[in-house]
């Protein structure tokens, strides 16, 4: 779908969001709490991730000077940029005093939607989402709930995904004009099984194919 994932490059859910976007061939924008020079980009463990984001035609964005070393106050400050860039903020988890709640408050001030995922009662990381739902955030239970919140028509999916397909992925879909087993498909593709499995895994993530009872078919 025509969705861009904006997050903060931090450890935990931010990194997971960027990784998921890359896996699904979605564009993603990272807003770190540091400058963008290679020497200071924070967190250091996500430097390789930042380079993958750029190679995938994503972006790194910061209002700080290139050599800015992050401080504690840098992170709430950058949160307003993430809130301002986005049509909606999705809160996965947050405790009662999480900086994520600052982003949610800013999103409300900027007239953006706030979405959140319900947690089991008593979950420490669910305290923030439950608080947000009490004051009007939209609960998200399925991916379709996100599409509805963003007013995206499900029919937009096919055209958007097709334009992102590599030549190899298009060959796989054409080969699957008739459903077949994985073994038969790999043989017809005439490529190493590891390479074929990567292609099939990517197409499954895109929800373009499905496998049932050992048979792979194009998903309708």
Using brief descriptors, characterize the structure shown.
10 helices; three-stranded parallel sheet; 220 residues; alpha/beta; single chain; 14% strand
Instruction: Identify the strand order in the major beta sheet.
Output: 1-2-3
What does the largest sheet look like? 3 strands, parallel
Shape type:
globular
From the alpha-carbon coordinates, what is the Rg to the nearest angstrom? 20 Å
Runs in which pLDDT lies below 50 for 5 or more consecutive residues are: none
Describe the structure.
It contains ten helices and nine strands. By secondary structure, the protein is an alpha/beta fold. The strands form three sheets. The chain has a three-stranded parallel β-sheet, covered by helices on one side. Strands 4-5-6 form a three-stranded parallel β-sheet, with helices on both faces. Strands 7-9-8 form a three-stranded antiparallel β-sheet. Helix 3 (74-85) packs across helix 4 (99-109). The radius of gyration is 20 Å and the shape is globular. The protein starts with a strand and ends with a strand. The mean pLDDT is 91.
Produce a short descriptive summary.
With 220 residues, this protein is of the alpha/beta class.
């Amino acid at each position: 779908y025509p969705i861009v994932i904006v997050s903060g490059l931090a450890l935990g859910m931010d990194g997971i969001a960027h990784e998921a976007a890359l896996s699904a061939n979605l564009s993603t924008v990272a807003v770190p709490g540091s400058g963008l020079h290679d020497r200071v980009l924070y967190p250091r463990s996500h430097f390789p991730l930042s380079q993958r984001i750029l190679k995938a035609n994503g972006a790194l964005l910061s209002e700080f000077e290139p050599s800015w070393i992050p401080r504690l106050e840098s992170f709430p400050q950058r949160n307003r940029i993430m809130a301002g860039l986005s049509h909606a903020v999705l809160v996965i988890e947050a405790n009662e005093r999480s900086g994520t709640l600052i982003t949610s408050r800013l999103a409300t001030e900027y007239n953006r939607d706030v979405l959140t995922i319900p947690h089991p009662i008593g979950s420490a990381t669910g305290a923030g989402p439950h608080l947000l739902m009490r004051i009007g955030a939209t609960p998200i239970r399925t991916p379709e709930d996100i599409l509805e919140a963003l007013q995206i028509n499900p029919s937009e999916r096919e055209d958007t995904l097709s334009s992102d397909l590599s030549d190899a992925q298009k060959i796989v879909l054409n080969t699957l004009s008739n459903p077949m087993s994985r073994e038969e498909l790999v043989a017809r593709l005439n490529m190493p099984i590891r390479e074929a499995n990567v292609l099939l895994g990517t197409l499954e993530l895109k929800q373009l194919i499905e496998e049932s009872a050992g048979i792979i078919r194009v998903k309708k």
